[in-house]
Amino acid sequence: MSENQEYNLETEKQPRNKYERREGEPTAAFKGASWGALLLGIVAYLIGLYNASMQLNEKGYYFAVLVFGLYAAVSLQKAVRDKEEGVPVTSIYFGISWFAMIIAISLMAIGLYNAGSITLSEKGFYGMAFILSLFAAITVQKNVRDTQKARERE
Question: Are 74 and 141 in contact (CB under 8 A)?
Fold first, then answer.
């Protein structure tokens, strides 16, 4: 074999189009796990609501608490991160973000505590799916922000 043919064989062994992760960017596995946890939490919660034998107004309450909680979690994560990075955040917005998060969790806890129409195992299911969704929403927001910041550095 000539040298050119050997060189071509060696270069063909190397993976093509290998994606290089930028410094500070989360790994693809972590991003995928975060999105998976978010989707799993939301879908499980919604399937539970769909199959629940509660009245439509109760289902609406739990759905609204989920949406409010997801928004509050992302808003709080953004406010905390902005403050940490020196981005100006008004104390009113920061306080409202914390207040909204506390209210969302309180509404879920109070609703589940007072729900007489669902079993204790269902209460645990809704509570865990809710918390999983909130945590995953925070993690996805962090990943999006870290990825954007890593790409802006170039």
Answer: yes
The answer to whether 41 touches 136, Cβ cutoff 8 Å, is: yes
AA letter at 86: G
Contacts of 70 (CB under 8 A, 6+ apart): 42, 133, 134, 137
Nearest to 45 by CA among 122, 141, 142: 122
pTM: 0.81
The string of pLDDT tens digits covering residues 129-141 is 999 999 999 999 9
Residue 153 CB contacts under 8 Å (≥ 6 apart), including other chains? 22, 23, 24
The two three-digit tokens of residue 27, written as one number: 């790994």
Joined tokens for residue 151: 């790409």
Q: Is 152 exposed, middle or buried (0-12, 13-18, 19+ CB in 10 A)?
A: exposed
Give the C-alpha separation, 127 to 131, whole Å: 6
- List the one residue out of 127, 141, 149 whose CA is nearest residue 35: 141
Cβ neighbours around 28 below 10 Å, total: 10
